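Before a colleague's protein record goes any further, I have to sign it off. Alongside the sequence sits a line of tokens, each denoting a local backbone shape. I want your independent view on whether this chain really folds as the tokens say. Where you disagree with what is written, explain briefly why. This is what I was given:
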Amino acid sequence: MDGREMTPAQARALDLLAYLTVNLVDHPDAVRIDLVSDQDREVFRLRLHPDDQGPFIGKNGQTARAVRSLLMAINARYGQRFALDIVED
């Protein structure tokens, strides 16, 4: 983030995303999550070790889709818009 204080919704979403990610990958020390504003939504940019990207995304994107669904539940509860981008380095 750019020095702004996190809202409770942002903090919950970040905690959930971090917990899920580090427990689903083989290289948890390589996990990096940035929160950036993009027009009318907040985007979590997830950086993973290259060996973890495929398994995290899952077969036909199922795992990544499930994580995005959980973020949508937080969206609905708090009225904020979050998105997830998995970024390659």
